[in-house]
Amino acid sequence: MDLRWLAHFVAVADAGSMALAARRLHVSEPTLSRQIRELEGFLGCKLFDRIGRRIALAADGREMLARSRRLLADAESLRERGVALGGGKGGVLRVGATPQFLEAAMPQVLTLYRRRHPEVEIRLVEGGGDRLIRMVEQGELHLAMPALKVIEPLQSALLYPLRVLAALSRQHPLRM
Fold it and tell me: What is the percentage of the chain residues whose pLDDT exceeds 70?
């Protein structure tokens, strides 16, 4: 199916006439009429009732018009996403972190990252150190933030100091 067929079908339906749609689309009436016939043949239904030189949406055409608009919107969204991905501006970033990091630091990290890269979709995965490391090694994550300092053979950097709060009973030998 040629998406131009759908775009031209929507244009004819919106204009209410083949001549007006042809002018708006900068194509000849015979070309536009041929494309509508090709679309009708492809879909196997009649889109317009032709009454002399006038046209009106057929019953099948009314249903197909709504679907055509959705399909064209989806196609445009796909094109925009492709342009963003092709330019290196968009895509998906898969990040894994410990529950503690997700709760304590990730909101600030995400806020800053979103300001600089609003086109990037971020997917978070919660997990422990060993699992997150395996996921990076297997390509399931782009980045992991486990609670370890050095992870061989992956490149690592200390992002923040780890602070731990321990609550002990007054009778415990390690109490302060």
Answer: 84
